[in-house]
Amino acid sequence: MSQESSYTKDWLLPVCRSNSTLPDDFDAVYADAGLIGGNGKATVGTWAFCYVKDNKIVYVESGIIKAGMYQMPTDRKMENDICETFALLRALSRVPTGWHGRVHSDNKNAIGRVFWEYKRDGIPESWFQYGLAKIDLAQSVAVHLDGHPTPEQLETGDGKRGNPVSIFNCFCDDECNNVRSRYEQWERYRDLLPAE
Q: Which of 19, 54, 110, 172 could pair with 48 as two cysteines, CB 3.0-4.6 Å apart?
């Protein structure tokens, strides 16, 4: 495909991107999400996850989620818990069959919906069917992180609520901010790009 034909109105839209091919071997999953706009008002959310082995990031994936995507109702406003749950399930959907390890999120509801039988209100059931098809949940460990740690908290490993903190969670948070910037760029310039 030529550069001209691929440079369309949606060229800048960060629907989903990854940094490499999926790895076979990693120890831990980190996922995070955010909103473009306030909770309950936003129509677009961001998500990101990474796989980690031996304290190195070996895979990254990120993108947006909005009403009408991934079986979300077309009139649905985005909420942080929905985006966080999607990020976690998206991460788990990409693991090799039978994978088990540490699964990290700074959102207790997302972790709870996957590991602790929290209510799944407003979340498409297909997300869980797809997201949990490969992971060995019984052999995996859920880690509820404190989000947005200070440099001092990263140094000690303890967050403001006493939960662990991680630089890999910070990385996912930053990647969500990168997605937000790309989406805002797309919003700003999409009318300058050809429709097809």
A: 172
193/196 Cα distance (integer angstroms): 9
Residues 39-79: tens digit of each pLDDT: 767 889 999 999 999 999 999 999 999 888 888 888 878 88
Q: Are 135 and 109 in contact (CB under 8 A)?
A: no
CA distance 144 to 109: 10
Pairing of strands 28-36, 102-105: parallel
CA 189 to CA 183: how far, in whole Å? 10
Collect contacts of 1-7 with beta carbons under 8 A, ≥24 apart. Answer: 7/193, 7/194
